[in-house]
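Reading a protein record of the kind used here takes only a little practice. Each token is a code from a learned vocabulary of local backbone shapes. With that in mind, consider the following protein and its fold in token form:
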Amino acid sequence: MPQSPEHTAIVLGGGVSGLLAARVLAQDGFKVTVVEKNQHLGGAVASHELAQLVLDSGAESFATRSPIVSNLLEDLGLKDKIVLPNSGGSWLYLPGGAYPAPSTGFMGIPGSFEDPAVQQVLNFAGIQRAKLDKLLPASVGAHAKTLGELVRVRMGSQVLNNLVAPVVTGVHTMHPDVLDLDTVAPGLRQGLRTHGSLAAAAAAIRCAAPAGSAVAGIEGGMNQLSEALVADLQRMRVRMVTGFDVIAVDRDPASGDWTLIQRRSDTSERTVALSATNLVVATDAPTATRILGSHLPASAVPSVKSGPEVALVSLVVDQPSLDAAPRGTGLLVSDQVTTVRAKALTHASAKWQWIADRAGAGRHIVRLSYGRTGDTSQPIREVDLTDDQLVTLGLRDAAKLLGVSLTPQQLVAADVVRWQGAIPAPRAGHQEKTEKFRDALGQLEGVTAVGAWLAGTGLVAVTKDTYATIAEFSANVRQNMACN
């Protein structure tokens, strides 16, 4: 449809959700401007260079339970670069040592107690307690607020501590006891009602996923998704403004236009430069609620904390003993482990063949994740360490987790990437709060919001939610204009 002055939109936030929102609006004929406070577009889908290798510095895969991301990549010309991880599988690191992770179930919830991997990490009493799940009425746990509460009441503490907590904490950085059930595990509550047990619900979710690997990646790194989105927006003449920190949003009561009050990140010079009829806020939760809070009823503005700080330590090491991938594609670490401070390790050169090919024989890339939320057992948080200290800690933790010797002499290169708030913090009641926020936002004309804090963690959730939200928003704008 032809552009008109009324069809203008500002997208505040240049992460993947913001870029997707801009793309949909541009395809619908809007004249779009993307505003991002950082110099980098793409948010946590980013890259860094280490030992002449371009690697992902944030997200390095996407879930294949839905074709929505694969379809997007195909649309962007990246279909031929989609790759599956090697079949080594992941491991768990528990107080008793390293164990292969079960291959059945969902989010660590076992779908079968006959799985040998499940029997390795649960003792006899733990298995017997877990099996009560199939005897309990479906009503038990039906009103659980958190994922941890549901698992504990139906399967017991061993399943929660040895299976679910390492998996969930590795993904969400927070313990399942504080994570909102319906946000981090959508469909699980309904699955319990439908199938009568948590194990059956987990097995059904697993079976519903496409055959093959649960995740996929891009040869050369997921960072190419951000680059392809930016290139596509440039082709559609979307304006992209970086280095501007928006401190407030005003709305003209007469025209209804939205105006961004900005502050240059480098000079703190305030300017009022950008206005549009429509506004999409694609930022983290604290920024979105701060920006939009004055335009909404106080009762509809959720008190949502920023996600925790995470430090990713990437190491390039020369250690031929790792050629055999002794811990598969990586490990998720139980929070009950006291000898290792990392919460997860990815053996990138064992997981992705393209990385192994570019690194060469005997050279390996491992990435460790630090930043446990609510851990008061240590005198200092890992993320408070300097980069050099984190590299030293990472080398020690990697040796312990992988079961090989790793010395400073074997370290070829290292890098530390820190992310603040990149992963949402969906505590109990989160979904109820976001639904109330979106309902109130729907009463305002010409504005909507998207992002991981509203959609849930992961590219599938973000992509699906952004498409649906922006398609509805665009249709409403066109309908309102037709009526006027």
